[in-house]
Amino acid sequence: MFNADFLINTLWDWSVIAFTVFAVIKNRSDPNNDAFLSREYSALALGYDNTNKFAIHRAGFVTSASNLINTGSNADVAVWKSAGVSSGNISVDFYKNGTAGSAALTLTSVTAGTRTLLGALYDNTTDPIVGHISELLIYPSELSDTNRNSVEAYLKTKWGTP
Fold first, then answer.
1. Is the pLDDT of residue 32 over 70?
2. In whole angstroms, what is the distance from residue 92 CA to residue 52 CA?
3. pTM for this predicted structure
4. What is the CATH number of domain 2-159?
5. What is the rounded CA–CA span in Å between residue 158 and residue 127?
6. How far apart are CA 119 and CA 151, in angstroms?
7. Dihedral class, residue 29 (left if φ above 0, else alpha if ψ from -120 to 50, else beta)
8. According to the model, what pLDDT value does residue 126 have?
9. Degrees (nearest 5) of the Cα angle 67, 73, 23?
10. Are 63 and 82 in contact (CB under 8 A)?
């Protein structure tokens, strides 16, 4: 379903299963806690922190940021990869243009919202992402490094990213 600047899905809860998300994205130049894929009301979100670092968010505005920074001047191929929620915690590996983040990020006490939102953080009325989403590929599994590298290489070539 399309709602203003958002896509909303009530049936698919990506936050409780293993996933690999590829996004060709360009964030705005003034950083903010932005997300392009979230479970409604900030249960869990993938995006940026307030310094333009690729990050994961959870309810209560707690952010866990990687060492990988979105440049803002060019689109990047960003990857979030997780084995899913285990004992209420989620651990996510980050990649930017083929470079791995320094460490996996973990959030504790993750709870799922009621709807999956594309293009918004926290809810669907007040927190739209300010940036560009050129392409989004979502796999309902944690891809192997070989498969992740193949998809990243394809997207980098297709979109001419660094």
1. no
2. 17
3. 0.81
4. 2.60.120.200
5. 30
6. 22
7. alpha
8. 58
9. 60
10. no
